[in-house]
Amino acid sequence: MNAIKLWYHKLGSPPYFYVFAGYIQPWLWTIAAVLAVAGLYGGLVLAPADYQQGDAFRIIFVHVPAAWMSLFIYGVMAVSAFIAVIWRPKMAEVLAMESAPIGAAFTLIALVTGSLWGRPTWGTYWTWDARLTSELVLLFIYLGVIGLYHAFEDPRQGARAASFLAMVGAVNLPIVHYSVVWWNTLHQGTTVRYFGPSSIAPSMLWPLLAMTIAAKFYYGASLMQRSRVSLLSLERGKDWVADIVRGEPTHG
Amino acid sequence: MMNASPDSQPTPIDVRGLVYERRDERVFGPLDFTVEARTIALVEGDNGSGKTTLLRVIAGLLRASAGEARVFGSAPGSDEARAGTASLGHLLGLKGDLTPRENLHLGMGLYGCKPGEDPDAMLCRVGLEGFGDEPVRTLSAGQKKRTALARLALLPARLWLLDEPYANLDRHGIALVNDLLAVHAAAGGAALVTSHGAVSFHQGVACTIRLTP
Amino acid sequence: MAAAFRAMLQRDLLLAWRRRGDALLPVLYAVMVATLFPFALGPEHTLLARISGGVVLVTVLLSMLLSLDAVFRGDLEDGALEYLVLAPQPLALLVAARMLAYWLVTALPLIAVAPLLAYMLGLEGPAQPVLLLALLLATPLLALIGSVLTALTVGTRRSGMLLALMLLPLAVPIVIFAAGAVGAAQQGLPWVAPVAWLAAALALAVVLAPLACATALRIALDS
Q: Which residue from C minimizes the CA distance to A187?
């Protein structure tokens, strides 16, 4: 327990985090790339075509991981935002704020791939399906957080305000989803089954899992890289940054 | 102020190693000082030396980066600290569409009122008789300042945090501020007052805190 | 504490009264937006009647969005906001008084004009009182949630568009339930459930939103 606490405090210090992130970052990139190549090969080449949807279903190997990541990253962001608002450590602010653009990107990917899949399946790029609509609202929440963060002159103040907004959004998300589902049934709209992973062949499952884990590692790698850049900017007055700028070997 | 005050009330301001940094750049500090009851403390320094920031930290609007400030024994901005403190900032916080009298009543509604004080009498005292029912936005800068001073003097707060109270005031106005401060201190109050030093200050000042950029 | 709440409410109502012309602007805006729909869609009665409830709700939402931006701006610019934060009173209580005054001054006139707009678009019969009820629950909810977001943008310079971006996702469930209730009433279906959800959300927001708003104001002022 004490070791974990010590590690937490160490990681909370920007110079230590900078070195740590620089050290694990190549590993994260490598794992993400290997898994993504394997997953894409398995999904796009090895897996057989769907007997109903033909090759169109193959987009789930991008869409489903992206949709899962859009929620997963929001969860990570909300937790760091909560820590940032209550205890105000700089690292939690950085992690929450640097998660937001990555989460927004995954949300956008999920939306675009979802509508690309919708064209051959539903005959239209966009339907007001409950999940697509929820995903769209999620994108708005991400954009609101990012917009609020950049609206402040002082980045730390902006991070705290945007973190608070992320917490409000976390409370709101389940309500949005519930209300959108209700709205969908009320207007007896599209009853098309979305990708239900109810029965999925193993030849499709492992590429999907590989892509999901690849997305997680990509997020980790991207977050580390973004956080390092953000730290350099936030701590530009500090000695350790000056050391790095002068090219002294702080980097591990 | 050398003799310890017999009443067991906590010290109005007690500051130990107080530092404030904005974006990792030090604005002031480390500062150590105390302001006892019946004392007026003057904060001196050039423009940009952090006088206003110091007042905002002690008021609880900004969080100190290091060190500790205690206001009546509690953290700045806590319920106990706010209950005994009244501020006067660069922005006076008067509503332009309300009259001075309505502004005073608003202040009393939010901060309470010192027993035995009357808003109309206070308006006369600060030299605003006859202006009590004009909208504040039609008054001159000096008259607005006097309105804010009248509001300050009505409140029951024992600690005053005054940011440049002499700005915009004529000679009589400056005398009025010194007079209000003297009465406040004599009644057991304390005050922390900033000034860029251009005004000759009255002799009631017990200690001076000098800020260097 | 009750005295402070009263003083704050009195202040805001008095200020609104001194500038009573301003209270008409959101109403005029709502009338204008609602009038544009028949021009855009054609005067066909059945179509307009079907969308009337939703159009009125969205119009009211947009009007409130425009006026929400100014809720704390005046107090920020003349410094009164700091005096409110520093007052020896619970800030949430003062914020609650501020939002009550805002609702009375901005939302009540909109609610008053909404049935007229809905009628002009062809909303008739039992759906009219449901619309009124939905507005009576949805507008304070929007005001309370909006106050939290407005407080967060207090420290920024340009906040109008940003506020819209922040508020719209949060307004989605409110619009869905309020318009859903009106639509159900129009079709003769039960409409109590969505209204009950709105009422429950409002009860929760009355307690939580002022506290959240006070926290947000402290974050936005601490620079």
A: C180
